[in-house]
């Protein structure tokens, strides 16, 4: 039966498309972002222990209290921010669910939502489902910085929300202290809200500090701050994340969350609650991934791909304009089929398909995976 689609322009996400193509062709998959190395055995043992201890039924809708308390303590220590685990926090089934609940809880038909392109693909469809109107501000290639004059021009009386993402997927750009000052100047004394996607908060390089919205009271009072354990603990398949927000926003958020998922995996929440108490489980992450980035870059130094600065996330952008002028989607597919390395074309993250001849490569991989991929890339 033909039905009238609510999202007529939306197909299957590029991550599913490229991973399927990679698997069908036995390629090295540097497309979808996930590590190919193991989870800490200690964390796996904790999940096992909590399953055997009988923690297998529904968790409270907001998340188990010990996990919310552990998150509150961590955020206080890292960002000097106080969030009440009872009224200002929700554990979700991944950051994806948190993004959905945050956006749908505040965007009404006709509201404008400012976002930066390239934009992670989970934002626009949710804005549209809510009847909102995406307003796109470009990040300027190749540094992918924000031109705040353009943001000021994009803000109108109908602006309800700004969506930010730092460290930024797919570009690896990060917000600076100057960006934060501009943002504060822009939103203070307005009713504009913020959704801040901070899933790569611990994956930031070269001694740069992560600028969380939680650090700044003028921003925190209007922000949904979203993170994900999947990125931090190499557990993207466990799908647990969380959202911090002031009580009035959290109340609206939970009205949606309770009917999307109600609650998320109980034994996994118990395991994270214990595991994350040790800062040693997340503080080495930046150094670990910086070494991966540098290793990958050293391996492709003599290739015809040209790297673009990556300051955070586990994605490296490579400019291939020295190799071909094919569109990025066509080149990404051909590279998978003919050369056996899969990457993500970045034009899919722009509403107008703007193509900078840049592909995104995930370096959250074992050294041998990176070595094998780089050997191929160096021959293209
Ligand atoms: N936001 C960004 C920028 C991401 O890269 C991801 C990773 N997939 C997500 C949100 C979703 O995170 P999760 O897997 O926890 O749903
Ligand atoms: N965030 C991951 C990426 O950017 C993929 C998540 C997904 O497959 N939906 O590659």
* Gyration radius, in Å: 20 Å
Listed once per kind, the bound small molecules are: 4'-deoxy-4'-aminopyridoxal-5'-phosphate, glutamine
How much helix, percentage-wise, in residues? 25-40%
Beta-strand segment tally: 13
Number of helical segments with 4 or more residues? 14
Characterise the protein shown here:
This protein is an alpha/beta fold. The protein is 38% helix and 15% strand. The chain has 14 helices and 13 strands. The strands form three sheets. Strands 2-8-7-6-5-3-4 form a seven-stranded mixed beta sheet, with helices on both faces. Strands 9-10-13-12 form a four-stranded antiparallel beta sheet. Strand 3 (112-117), helix 5 (124-129) and strand 4 (133-138) form a beta-alpha-beta unit. The radius of gyration is 20 Å and the shape is globular. The model has no long low-confidence stretch (mean pLDDT 97). Bound molecules: 4'-deoxy-4'-aminopyridoxal-5'-phosphate and glutamine. 4'-deoxy-4'-aminopyridoxal-5'-phosphate binds next to helix 4.
Keywords:
single chain; 380 residues; alpha/beta; 7-stranded mixed sheet; 4-stranded antiparallel sheet; 14 helices; 13 strands; 38% helix; globular; binds 4'-deoxy-4'-aminopyridoxal-5'-phosphate; binds glutamine
